Amino acid sequence: MARKRIHTRTVVVEVYDEGDGTISIEGRLEDQQPLDSGYFNGKRRASDERPPGVLHGMSARFRVDQKTSKILKTDGEFPGKPYEGCGAVLPWLSKLDGLKITAGYSHNAKDLLGGPKGCAHMNTLLQVMANTRSASSAYFISAGKAEEMFKQRAQAAETYDNPALNSCHMWREGGPLISALGQGKSPIELDL
Q1: Is the predicted pLDDT of residue 40 greater than 70, yes or no?
Q2: Cα separation, 78 vs 120, whole angstroms
Q3: Would you call 119 exposed, middle or buried from its count of C-beta atoms within 10 A (0-12, 13-18, 19+)?
Q4: Radius of gyration of the chain (CA)
Q5: Distance CA 91, CA 147 (A)
Q6: Span of 84-88, 130-134, 149-153 with lowest mean pLDDT
Q7: Is the pLDDT of residue 160 over 70?
């Protein structure tokens, strides 16, 4: 039997510095299957507005305080929902408001919106968005500002909520990258 693609999931997350001490994290998830799949061979309800081949299509947005990593506002859209009831999860996203995107976020978010309290697809998107927040903050440095930023982070190590802290073994507490930052060194200059 020849190999055949049966499913494609696309997740795109973009992070924007809003210039006011906050960032916006915008994510989209879309699941597609070939038009000859069993799912699409059946009749679709008249109210189904999804493009051909789209199983799920959703988006979510976080507005996050850059300094504390606290989610200030969450909202989303569900333009590609397989069932009308799927959109019921959108108001529930506000339960994430006030959470910090730091160590423990995934567990807390699943407690609030996991399983029958939410949507598996939306939770997947929210987890990727949180991870992208950590990556964007850990690695993005304005041109010409690296040395100044690392010195500021070293001075503020007691109060700075580093979103990458304990996100992986390299960013673990006491690990090589956190130690370098605590000494005012740029991790990108070190051979780690």
Answers
A1: no
A2: 13
A3: buried
A4: 20
A5: 42
A6: 149-153
A7: no
Q: In the chain, what are the domain boundaries?
A: 8-139, 146-189
Which amino acid would we find at residue 146? A
CA distance linking residue 59 with residue 79, whole number of Å: 8
pLDDT bucket at 145, cuts 50 / 70 / 90: low
What pLDDT does residue 16 have? 94
DSSP state of 174: T
Q: How far is CA 111 from the centre of its chain?
A: 17
Contact 129, 25 (CB under 8 A): yes
Quick one: which H or E segment has residue 79?
Answer: strand 71-80
Which pLDDT does position 169 carry in this prediction? 76
- Residues whose CB is less than 8 angstroms from the CB of residue 76 and which lie 6 or more positions away in sequence, other chains included: 58, 59, 60, 61, 90, 93, 122
The phi and psi torsions of 23 (rounded to 5 degrees) equal: -125, 155
**Among candidates 42, 38, 47, 29, which has minimal Cα distance to 85?**
47
